[in-house]
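Bench notes, bay 3.
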Amino acid sequence: MKTFFKVGIGIFLFVALGGGAYLSFALPRSQPAADINTSYTPEMIERGRYLATNVVICLDCHSDRDWTIYGGPAMEPLGAGRKECITQDSGKSGISVSEWTFPGLICIRNITPDPETGIGNWTDGEIIRAFREGIGRDGRPLFPIMPYFILRNISDPDAKAIVAFLRTLPAVKRAHPPAQVDFPMNLFMKIFPAPVTTPVPAVDLDDPIANGKYLTKIARCEFCHTPRRVQGRIPIEGEEFAGGVPFNLNGGETMISNNLTSHEDGLAAWSKEDFIARMQLDAEPRPVDPSQNTVSSWHAYSGMATSDLSDIYDYLQTVTPKKLGKM
């Protein structure tokens, strides 16, 4: 029995040490930043502005937000990062899935063109690698609060357009301390980055279903409205868009994401006109008690083009109807 016990302990230690060595030295998976030299056109910059402001909402994440307005619109200076960092016991500095804890200190960085504290000295390829593959300029993995595992679906032309727009932001000198991620998450986070090794073609904007599917992916509709396991991190296959995901805003009540399928628990009674009207309802600022605000960036999404919202509705109608999900 003692021999068996010793063998078991030995195997455990071997696996643990081997796994630790793998996480430490073999990961993250990465590739050199692509050599991209883009000629920016006004059309490209406008496409990037639209995506970064109203679809991918880069500016909502990388700016302080006004929680006295419904939907928490981004505040000036846009893209300069947030003044407050997110810590393990901080519920005041950001939105999180209720089960998530932040192991250490995570600061939302400056993405303006300032060469010292922003991304002014980053190449186009380094910026795209960061938001699609999760690798910083220094080759280190980015904490997955940055949703690069979703943004990897952004097409190559749209990725370049976002960079083109970011280059036009006023440069702001605002330094943020580097992330300080506690053990063992500092090792586990190396699992998430992954190279984009094949071209990501542009979506056919004339195909409503294809465009709607693309937008629901990169705008995080699918992620926020799909139940997840493993402390809210892994989407449950077959439950896409069923809702039921708990979110917590600034220490207020836990909110549950809506069912976006055509089930009676979801959008069964909603016409396309109803859907578009609701999405555009908060185009004008609406004052609200911060404790009664929302986790959804309604103000940003309200600026989405009517044609894109129409395509999203059309795509959601093709999704298998499901009861409201649970986590």
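Next record in the batch:
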Amino acid sequence: MVLDTVRVFNKHVLNPLMMLVAGQKYWYAGVIEHTGRRSGKKYSTPVVIDRVSDGYIIPLPYGTEVDWLRNVLAAGRATLRVHGETVQAVEPEILDAAAAAQQLSPRRRREFARFGIKKYLKLKRETGPSTQR
């Protein structure tokens, strides 16, 4: 399947390059830091992260069966590095395209629709003293 080939290429070639700039202030991609649900190992994965009124939305172009997403759902939290800021994010929730579209900017809605993205991850920013780093 073409999508699987792209995913494997991205994981082994593009993602290591993206990690050099992901999460920086003026870069479109951020980083989601998560802990392996079986190994306990810490991982960092470059992803597109959009700030919305009550948190963050991450498009899931490869669907909901990717390891990093399973890790975040199992832990119920993740650390996001986005636009030069590090935040703790909680309450992961899978959204369909219609629910996510209501929260995204018109430009992002069009962009993600063009790529046929059907599922999204929504996280809320953790409030309280633990968000300060």
